[in-house]
Protein 1
Amino acid sequence: MEAVEIRKRMDRKRLAGSLTETKKKEEIKERKIREVREEEKKAAEGETYGPGIGAMDVQYVHYTCFDENFAVFMLEAMAKVVEGDDGAIAVVDAETGKKRTFSELCELVPRMSAGLAAAGVGLGDRVMYYSLNHTDYPLVYLSVLHRGATIVHISPIYEALHEDMMHALRLSGASWAIVHAELLDQAEAVFSLLPPNTLKKVWVIGGAVDRPAIEDLVAHGPIPPVTQLDGLNPASAVAQMPFSSGTTGPRKGVMISHSNEVSRMIMIKYLADVQEWLGTSESTDSTCLLVTSLSHIYSHIILFASLMFGGKVVLLPHVSSSAMLRAIQEHQVTMAIFTPHHLKMIVESPVGQEHDLSSLKLVTSAGASLSEYVVKAFKNKVGALVYNLYGMTELASFATGCIVTQDWKSLCIGKVMPFFEVKVVDLSSGQLLGAGEIGEICVRSPTTMIGYANNSAATSSMIDAEGWVHTGDYGYYDSQGLIYMTDRIKDLIKSKSSLQVQPSELEDLLLQHPHVAEAVVIGVCQDDFEEMPRAFVVLEPEAPVQPEVLKRFVNDRVPDFKQLTGGVWVVEEIPKNSTGKPMKRQLKAGQVTQLASCC
C-alpha cells in the first residue's frame, strides 16, 4: 500500500421516499439502486482507496451527504417492516417484558411530535433526555427529531452526577426534559439549583409518578402526516447532543446533525447489501441485546440499524452478568452489543454454564480497547464470533471494524468502513505516513459531527480545514490495510530525553503476569519536561500483594526510559466510565483506594 490516504467513498441515491409511495415508484427506486451498484463497481479507475471490510469488491465509491430528517427516514424504513408484518416487535424490555411494535412506533411518533408542538416545543429547542434503557426511547427520540428539536443525552451512569448534569444543561441550553422515574429524585436535586424557569416542563418516562408523563404528549385524532419539516436544514440542524467520554478533561457537547445520522444508516445499509455485516441482512430474523446505555452513540447506532432492518431489540435497564446471560437465553438473542467490560463480566461470571447461549452467533465490542485474553476466554466460554469496532462520538459512527480471528492482534481495529477516509500523519509535521509508520490517525466522513457546542476552539482543534478529524489516537496501518490503534496521544508519557512511552506496551506486559487482573499506566510529573510511568494494578483474587515484584517484572523487560520509575500502586479497583474506559484523571489525582505501593 502506498503512503496515501486509505480511502473508501460512496455516492448513493436516497433510498427512501414518502410513506405514500406507490408500488410502481418502489420498483423504479429499486431499479435505480441496482444501477448505482453496477456503476460503483466500474467507476473511477486509478483512484486510490483502502480495502473495505471482508470481501467488498467496490474499489471507488463517491459519497455525498443525505439531507433528510432522520425521523422521516426511520419512519419510512419501519413502515416497510409493517407492510410485511404489522405485529412485528421492535423493542422489548428484558426485565418487564414491555414491548413496542413497529406499527405502534409508526403511529405514535407523528402523534407525539404533534403533542410536543402543542406543548410549545419549537424548532431547534433542546430536550434533555435522562433515562435508563427503555422501550420508549425510539418513540421519544424520533418524535423530538420529527418536531425539529434536539435530544440532549445525559448518561445515567455519570460519576459526578450533579456536576455533570449541571454542566450539560448549561452547555446545551436545554429548556425541556424527559426523565426516567427511577432517576427523578437525582434530576430534581439538580433542577432545584437552576435559575427559575430554566426548564419549561419535565415529563416522566418509565413509571407512575405524580408528574406529567410522556404518554400525555400523544395527540389524539387523525394520525398527522409524515413529512419533512419546513425550516429544518438536515445538514445543520442538530439531531442529538451526546457528550464526550470525559476521560481526559471536561465533557464536551457533540452536535450531530440529521444528515450525519442518515449518512451512517446508508453506510450500514450498504454494508448489509454487500455482505452479512454484523450478522445482519434485510430480514426480521435477528434479535439484538443492548446493554450499554442508549445515551452512548454505540448503542444508539445499533438500535436504529436493527430497527431499519426489521430486527427485534432487547433492552436491559440494569446490567449484571446474570441479567445478560438470562436475557440471551430467554429471548434467543442472536447478536449482543457489548463493551470489553461486559465481555469480561461474562468471562468471570460463575453462572454462565447454567444458561443456554447457543442462539448467540455474534458479539460486537466497542467503547474501549479489547484484549486478547478477554476475547479468547469469551470465545472459549460462549463460542460466538466477536466483531471489534472502532469509532468516536464525534464521528457518530464506526470508522473501522474486523472479525476477531485466531490471527487477530489486540491493537488491531480493522479495516476502513465505506463512506470513510483514513490517513496517518506525523505528529510534528502533519505529513502523510506510510505503512508501518506510527502517527496520528485522522478520519474524514459525512457522518462527522457539526462541532462541539459553544466551543469553537475545541472544534477547530478536532476538525481541520479539509474536514479531517484528528482523533487523538496514535497508531499505524499495515500493508494489508489493517489499522492499529496503540494509544491516545494525550496518554503518551514524555520520559527521559523527550522519548515517548506508550502506556499500552507496559500495560500488556503487566497483564502477562499471572497475578494481575487489570492494569493502567499513566505518566506522573517529575518536572516540567519529564514524566515517570506509574502503574495501577488490580490483582487476581488471593494473589499476593507484592508491588515490588510487579515493578521488577516490567523493568527487567524494557529499556531504562520505559521502566516504572513512578512506581506500582496496587488498588482495589480502577475507576472507569460507563463504557469501561479508565478514568485517568482520577488516577492522576490519586482518587483510588490504595492497598499497597512501591516507588
Protein 2
Amino acid sequence: MSWFNYIGLIIVVLIMIPNIIYGIKKPAPDNKNISKPIVILENIGRYSCMFFIVFNIPYSWFNFFLNNGLTIYIVVNSLLVVSYEVSFIIYWNKNGLAKALVLSIIPSLIFLFSGIMVLSIPLICASILFAICHIYISVKNT
C-alpha cells in the first residue's frame, strides 16, 4: 500500500451511502442536549478518519505488521461494512439505544481496526476521538 489507500476510499464510500440516503429521507437529530465542543470534536474526528483511511501520510504509518495483513484488513473490514449496512436496514424505522450503539460502534471499529492494521498513528488517534464523541452523541440523542 502506498500513500493512497483505494480500499480505504471504498470503505468510506460504502459507509457513507446509507448515511446520505438516511439524511435525505429522515430529519437530522438536533444536538440541543450536546455541548458544542463535543460536536466539533466529533466532526474533527470523523473527517480526520475519512482522510487518514484514504491517504497515508509519509512517516506516520508503518504498513501491515502481519504477513497476511492485507487479506485480514480486507476480510475484517468487509465484514464490518456489511454488518453496518445490514444494521442500517434493520434499524431504519426504529429508534432506541440499540440503534444508537450499533450504528456508532461499527464505524468506530472500522476506523480503529484500519488504523491498527496499517499502524497509522493519525488514524488511530482520530478514530479514538471519533469513537468517544460519536458514541456519546448517539446515545445522548436517543
Protein 3
Amino acid sequence: MTDWKRILRAVAPRARADIVAAFVALDAEIEAAGIATDLRRAHFLAQVVPESAYLTRLEENLNYTTAERIRATWKTRFQDVAAAAPYVRNPKALANFVYGGRMGNNRPGDGWLFRGGGLGMTTGRANYRKAGFESSPEELRKPLIALRTALTFWVDNRCEAYADRDDVVGLRQVWNGGQIGIAETREILAKAKAVLKTLPAQAKLKALRYPVGAVDGDHAARTTGAVQLLQHRAGLPVTGELDDATLAALDEAEPLPVAKKDANLAASRTVQGAGAAGTFGFAELVQSAGELKDQVESAHAQISAGTVFGLVMGTVIVAGAAYAIYARWDDAGRPLPGFLARRFPSLMGAA
C-alpha cells in the first residue's frame, strides 16, 4: 500500500484534505492503472500537481486581478493590455471569450460551463464529452471522480511508457498538448523523486533506532545526520546522501544498540544522527564543526572590518558559537570534561 498521505504532504504541503483522501481511497485503482513504481508515481504527480495548483483546485481559476496577467496568458486572444482590461475579476466573461467557439464549445456560455476541471484541467465541451461528463461537467470537479478521470487518461494514452523512460517532455506534450508549465513540471518531478526515495529510507532508519526525526520525506539535517552515521558504521564514504551503496547498506543494517546512559543523547532535539552507544555522534560532530566554521568565518569578516563594532561583534559570534557547542553537549546529557568543570564551575551549577 502506498502511503499517499505522507507523499502528498511532502510534495504538495497545501493539498486539500479531500483530494489527499481521494488518493488514499483509490490506492488500489492507482496501482491497477499501472502507476505502481516510484518513477511512475513521480511522473503522475508531476502532471497533476501543477495542473491543480498543488492539489488545491479542481477547477480552473479565471479570476485574474490584472490585465497584464490576462494578456500574458492569452497573447493570441488579446492584442494589448487595454483589450484585456474588461475581463479583470470577471472570470465568467473571460472563459466565454477565450474558450468560446473552439474545443467543441458551440453554444453561448459553453466557455464557462466547460472551463478547466479535474486533476488534468479538462477544457472544452468536446473534451468533457470524451471524458464522459458533457451532461454533468460539475461532476469532474469532485475529488474521487477527478482522480479516476486522470487515471483513465493515463491508461488510455499509455503514459507509463513515457514515465518508464523518464521522458518528462514527451509526457507533458501528451498531457498538456504542448509544453506550458514544463519548468514547474520538472521541479515537481524532482521533488517527487526525492520524496519517494527519502520516505522509505527514513522509515527504515527509524525502525533501526537511528534518530532520523520525522518520517516526512524531507531530507533535512536530522535525516542527513542519520544517513552519515549509517555510512560511517558501514565503512562507506560519509556524504549524507542516499546513493545506491547506502540504500543497500540500509537493507542489511542492524538496529543501533542504544545503551541506557545514551537515552538522552538519542532523544536530544539537537542531535542529527547520533545515538550509537558510547559516541557523541559522528554526524553531530560533523554538523557542529561545519556550523562552527561558518560562525568563525562570519566573525573573521567582522573583525577584518577594523571597527570597534566589528571587533565586538566578532567576539560575540565566536563566544556564541562556543556556547552553542557546549549547549549541544549538555543537551545530550554528557558530563562536562573535568578541566572545563574545574575552570568554569558555574557551568556545573556550582554556586
Protein 4
Amino acid sequence: MASFDGYEVEDGDIHPILKPHQRACVKWAVKGGNRALFESFGLGKSLQQVEVVRITKSLAGGAGLIVCPLGVRQEFKRDAAMVGVETRFLRRTEEFDAEFSGIWLTNYESIRDGKLSPSLFAVVSLDEASVLRSYGSKTYQEFLPLFAGVKHKFVATATPSPNRYKELIHYAGFLGVMDTGQALTRFFQRDSTQANNLTLYPHKEKEFWIWLNSWAIFLQKPSDLGFSDDGYDLPELKISYHEVKTDLANAGEEKDGQGKLFRDAAIGLKDAATEKRDSRPARVSKMVEILQGDPDSHYLLWHHQEAERHDIAKAVPGSVAVYGSQDLDKREQAVIDFSDGKIQYLSAKPSVAGSGCNFQRHCHKAIFVGIDYSFNDIIQAIHRIQRFLQTKACEIHFIYSEAEREIMRTLQTKWRQHEELVGNMTDIIKEHGLNHLSLSDVLSRTIGVERIEVSSDLYTVANNDCVIEARMKPENSVDLIVTSIPFANHYEYTPSYNDFGHTANNDQFWAQMDFLTPELLRILQPGRMYCCHVKDRIMFGNVTGAGAPTVSPFHCEAIMHASKHGFDYMGMITVVTDVVRENNQTYRLGWSEQCKDGTKMGVGSPEYVLLFRKP
C-alpha cells in the first residue's frame, strides 16, 4: 500500500469554490503527498491541481510548479484566478524568483531539455501526465532522476493507461510508490510468444487494482464518491466511420518481386507512410464533403502529417492551423480564439492541441482526417469537446482508407480495454471510496496454509508449505527429489508471507531457501540424487539501468547454494530451448538488433537440470 507522506487538511483550508468531489480529492491527494488524479474529462483536474499545489507548498514550504503541455497554460491561469492564486510562466532556471508566492507554470520540453531544474521546487504536479506511460520514452527516462529530490509529486490525466495496464506502474515509479521493476515482477507475467507483451497474473488482478487505488483516484463522475451528479451528464457521442477506396492496382511488390494482392498499412511503417500519402487526396475530399453538408457548425480538424495540414489549409481557406514550429503566443491565441467561438475551423495534430484544451463551449464536432495507432492521442482529442458541461451531442468522424482497416480495429480494441480499466477502478472506488484502511484489509497477507492431503496405494500428494512438509518427513526416507524451484522473485503464487516468490531480490530468495535445502539433504537417502530445474533470467536494460539486456546467472547461484548446504554437485543437463521464441520475448538475438548495436547482443539461454548427490 502507498504510504502517507503529506498533510491533514480541514475543509476550511480548501477554497469554497471547489465542488464536493473536488474537495474530497484535494484532501486525499494532499494527505498522501504523492498521488495521481486519474479523473474523467471535465471533472476539474486543473482546478484541483492548483489547490493541491497551493495547500501543499504552504505546509511544506518552498515553491510550487505545474508542468503542462504546450498551449494549456491559459486553462491554469483561469482556474488559478478563480481561487485567488497568481501564476507565472517559467521557461528556464534563470527566470526563477524565490520571492514569488504564487504557482509557477512551465511545459514539459523546458524540463526535459534541461532548461529548468525541478530541484527548485518542493511541490510539482504534472498535468496530462501521459508522457510517463511509455517506459522507454526520452521524457520518462529523464524525468525520473530529475524529480528524485522533489518531496511532493502529483500527476493528473484522464487517460493514464489507454493501451496497456503495464503503463500504469510507471506513474507509481515516478511518484515513488513502488520501483517500476519491482511492480513488473510482482504483478505481471510474460507472454512467451511476444516481447514486452506483459499481462496481469490472473490471481493478482484484485490485488493490483486495490494497490492502484491506494495511490491513484479513478473518478468517472461525482457519484462514484457518493456526491451528486447534477451538471455532470456526459453528452452522447456519435461516431461515424468513413472508409475511402484504395487503389489496389498499385499494391506494390514483396522483396522477392511477387506482386501484392492487397495494400495493408498495418504491415509496417513504410507501408503505413505510403498509404497515408496515396490516400490523402481522397481523405481530404471526404472531409470537405462533410463540412459542405454542415456549413454552420464549428469543427476540429485533426490530422497527423504536415502534408495533411497544408492540404486542409487549401481545401478549407477559412481554417486556422496550429502546429509545433509555430510561435507559442500565436498558437495559444488561436486556441483561445477557437475556444471562444471566434474561429469556425481549427486544424491541428492531436499531439499539439489534443491534450488539456477545452473546446466544448462553442464546438461539438470533430473530424479525424486520418488515423494512426495512438489511441491516447485520439481519446484525448475526442474529449476536447465531449466533456461534462458540454450541452450538445458530440459528433466524431473517422476517415481512413481500406488499407487501414486493421489499424482501425486495433484502435477499437484499445478503446474497449480503456473502458474495462475504467470499469474495474470505478467498482473499487464505489466499494472502498478513499478509505485506506478498507483497502489494507483486502490486501493483507496471510501466514501459513491449511494442509490438504490426497493419497492412494501409488502416491501421496500434499498441499502445504514445503518447508513444514519437509520437516515432517523422516530422515533418510526419500529415494529421489525432482523439483523446479521458483526463479527468485520471478513468480509469486499466493498472497502469503511464506510464498517463496515473495522476495525483493535473489539474496532474499536464497535466504528463504536456507530453510528448505537443509531439510532436503536430511530426508534424502545417502548416495541418492537431488535434481533441480532452473533457468537464468534475462534482465531488461530499462529496468536495471544497464542500457542493454543482461543475464542473471541464477543456475550458478543455485549450484553454490546447494553445495554450501552439503550436496555434492554432479553436473547439469542442458534443456535446449527455442531461440526463435526467446527472441520474440526479448529482442536480443535477432539480426536487426545486431545491425543496430552488436555490443548488446546475447546468445540463446537454455534451461538446466542441476544434479546433486547426498554424500
